[in-house]
Amino acid sequence: MANKSDVRKRDIRYSPKLETDIIFEKANDSNPFLVDEILYHGFEHFDLMANVSFTDMIFLLLNGELPTPEQSDTLRKLSVAVCNPGIRHAATQAAMATGTGRTDRLHILPISLGIFSGEFEAAGGMDSLIKDLLDLANTSLQEAAHKVSNNSTNGFGTLYGDKDPYAEKLLQYFCESPTLPLLQKLNSIQAYLSQNNVNSGILKQGVVAAVLHDLGFSEKQFGPVFQLLSAPGLLAHGMEYSEKPMSAMLFESDEQYEWQK
Amino acid sequence: MNKRYSEWEECHGKIKSRRGQWVIGKGVFNFNFDMMNDLVGNCSYMQVVMLNATGRLPSPELAKWVDASHICLSWPDPRIWCNRIGALAGSSKTSSLLATCMGNLASDSRAYGPKTLVAGLEFMQRALKEVKSGLNVEAFVKKELAAHGGKPKIMGFARPIAKGDERIPAMERVTQDLGFEIGEHLSLAYQIEEILIRDFDETMNINGYMSGFLSDQGLTPHEVYRMYSFIVASGVTACYIDAFERTAGTFAPLKCEDITYTGAKRRPVKTY
């Protein structure tokens, strides 16, 4: 019997090598740390550079195949749809505070994307969302409306106390594509909610999750992909404020500051 | 072995450390210390932070001084940039760890945080060198002012947002209570301050005080940067929690009308 204070190594066999499906690097003949050729999921790097878009490349890296033309077009549209959370978003405010606070500009994205991992209007909690959306899509319109009214469906709800009109516009835009069946079902539910004056509706996370689901992404990828696609706007706002004087950022006066002792 | 990449080849397949190692079954070693037997219970956490940052175990008094200075440098007002990030993280319902890390990362700034201490210590150490080499303090300050367009923009002196610095009397008390003498760097900082008060009504700030004191302790600017890597963390955590415990999105919410758009007018996307 071992003494409880003894510390012993566990017999864990660690992998002697790393392995990946994503990249193959052919070593340079005279220096094994340098690369002569790169394949991504079998596609030669320069071939990809010549023929695919950045969003196609994201699809390939995460899914192992290049998207079909329809998938490519939808992901391109989604990347534009969510490229900027908006200047009033907490993550953008964080980017701006980073920029105007004279923080190293290379920290703008890590900081703001970190804040974008939250659950409010952002990428947090999205991996549990698709189950709710699929359940909703498989019920009757009346039952769906009941569920949404009771706030029991992630991806639907209210924002600042009301249904989100812009998320509804995005939903309508994407459901024009015949290759997005979940989106179309959710749009029917949204229309039914509106006809019955239910003050609750699809949220942006719901639209993003449904689009990514219909594109074939796994639910574990939804949040991180949403985060990745939001990066350009966060960066732009942070950079804009990194050029402004420190006084350009909000600094509420003492009169605006309520210390709730 | 090919000499061009021999340094990398030499490191291939192994980890080298000058710091320490967990030897399972034998102990955890940090430099020459057995962490569980030599350090735990015998040292403060801040002494070990400084050991890890500088490679030297400081006196309990110096660690206590550094500990106190951390209290000066982080407080729970979410209007401060890094704290605002913590509050925004709370309002977004992220985790406290993420909030604290992201807010703390924001302090990697040239306006506040540990990077300004690098500039502060570099300035104080250069200042003492120049004064010791024969330049009088008045002439030195004049030269520094000229380099900044005649404005008192000298690292460690004056302060954004407010004039004066309530943290200096607090740290002066700590310095005295712990039995530290005023060394030649800090003494010079006081002389520079006298000139700036006289000519600009601007005082030394906490950076100047700390830079003078820490230079007198023989620390290098980069050692200090590393020691103060979590300089604003606790205030960020506090601001995170305050916002997290409220309804999502209620930290300083902005209406569309709160934003003034100054960009191009509406225009169509050209298709080719």
What does this structure look like?
The complex is a heterodimer of chains A (261) and B (272). The N and C termini of chain A lie far apart (56 Å). Chain A has helices spanning 45-51, 54-63, 69-81, 90-100, 108-115, 129-137, 141-149, 165-174, 181-195, 204-215, 219-242; strands at 23-27, 35-40, 43-44, 156-157, 201-202. Chain A is globular. In chain A, helix 6 packs across helix 9 and helix 10 crosses helix 11 (219-242). By secondary structure, chain A is mainly alpha-helical. With 272 residues, chain B is mainly alpha-helical. Chain B is built from 13 helices and 3 strands, in the order αβββαααααααααααα. Chain B has helices at 6-11, 35-39, 45-54, 60-72, 81-91, 96-106, 114-132, 137-147, 167-177, 184-200, 206-216, 221-227, 233-244; strands at residues 20-23, 27-30, 33-34. In chain B, strand 2 and strand 3 (33-34) form a beta hairpin. In chain B, helix 7 (114-132) crosses helix 11 (206-216) and helix 10 (184-200) runs antiparallel to helix 11. Chain B starts with 5 loop residues before the first helix and ends in a 28-residue tail after the last helix. Classes of the chains: A mainly alpha (261), B mainly alpha (272).
Radius of gyration of chain A: 23 Å
Radius of gyration of chain B: 24 Å
- This entry's quaternary arrangement is heterodimer
Query: Unreliable runs of chain B, pLDDT <50, ≥5 residues?
Result: none
Shape of chain B: globular
Count all strands of chain A and give the number: 5
Keywords:
heterodimer, A: 261 residues, mainly alpha, two-stranded antiparallel sheet, 5 strands, 7% strand, globular, B: 272 residues, 53% helix
SSE arrangement:
The complex is a heterodimer of chains A (261) and B (272).
Chain A: E1 23-27, E2 35-40, E3 43-44, H1 45-51, H2 54-63, H3 69-81, H4 90-100, H5 108-115, H6 129-137, H7 141-149, E4 156-157, H8 165-174, H9 181-195, E5 201-202, H10 204-215, H11 219-242
Antiparallel strand pairs in A: 1-2, 2-3, 4-5
Chain B: H1 6-11, E1 20-23, E2 27-30, E3 33-34, H2 35-39, H3 45-54, H4 60-72, H5 81-91, H6 96-106, H7 114-132, H8 137-147, H9 167-177, H10 184-200, H11 206-216, H12 221-227, H13 233-244
Antiparallel strand pairs in B: 1-2, 2-3
Helix pairs in contact in B: 3-12, 4-9, 5-6, 5-13, 6-13, 7-10, 7-11, 7-12, 10-11
